[in-house]
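Hi L.,

You mentioned the student needs an example of a multi-chain input paired with its predicted structure. This one should do, with 286 residues in total across all chains.
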Amino acid sequence: MSETHEDTNLAAALVGLSHHVLHLFADAGRAHDLTQQQAELVCAVIVRGRVGMSELGRALHMEKSALSNLVDRAEKRDLVTRTRDPHDRRATWVELTPEGARLAEATHDDVTARIKGLVEGLSGQDRAHLTGVLTQLRDAAQG
Amino acid sequence: MSETHEDTNLAAALVGLSHHVLHLFADAGRAHDLTQQQAELVCAVIVRGRVGMSELGRALHMEKSALSNLVDRAEKRDLVTRTRDPHDRRATWVELTPEGARLAEATHDDVTARIKGLVEGLSGQDRAHLTGVLTQLRDAAQG
DNA sequence: TATTGTTATACTCTATAACTATA
DNA sequence: TATAGTTATAGAGTATAACAATA
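Structure written out for the whole complex:
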């Protein structure tokens, strides 16, 4: 197999797997009456503790206006709260409510468990290697 | 690092990377005035040649009604056509129009190129290993 | 009866651009 | 001037359920 052809296979496998992984948020969220985007939002907040709108936009790859709307709806559903940063009054911090934290934890655990189930067919060596490579790729992508 | 902790890292890296990969469709599509979902649709069709609604729904992880709406809009924009299967008149085949095929090829090439750019920092050995593992995971996920 | 797909309804999500407030 | 975020508008995407047609 040529290198180019193999890269094409790599790309196809990565795209198919990415679809599957993000769909896990839809599945896990549905169990708690959260949309996929709401599930991604609360999981992104819980792993960061407290997070600004800009960082959240980068993490979720959303325009600031789309994120503002998403946070609006999440706030109405008592999942998150907004607070102003007193040191830079332009900035907003997003935090989970107790209810949001409860759903976020359940959803995050569910997604993580599903991913663990997905990779359990791999050898420990393959998993360790995969973790290193994926981390490197993700950091390169976000860098 | 414990195995459990390492699996958590694996899950986090996979989620972050999946976000990035699917966002490539949004970027690549925008260059041709396609939404992310339209870009995913025409790319899914071009790699399959001609495809039924059910298979498309599985590939894109969409409910049949959502897919029906997406294909409606794509048909209005002259990206795809629907034809009835004469052997099973319940079934519908989706094909690309010449215009749809042109945009699909450009978008697919663009996404593939971006993914190749992403993995070019890896050694040939790491890439080959990654291709094997990702293919295995994708097939397990879709199986 | 089961399957394939569409339609109806009511939301949620998103992009673009114009806007406010703060730095 | 630049940055952080919101609002307005209009359209795209989605889930649920009810529906029609075919197998």
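You could point out the following to them. The beta strands of chain A are 51-52, 80-84, 92-96. The CA atoms of residues 47 and 68 of chain A lie 20 Å apart.

Best wishes,
N.
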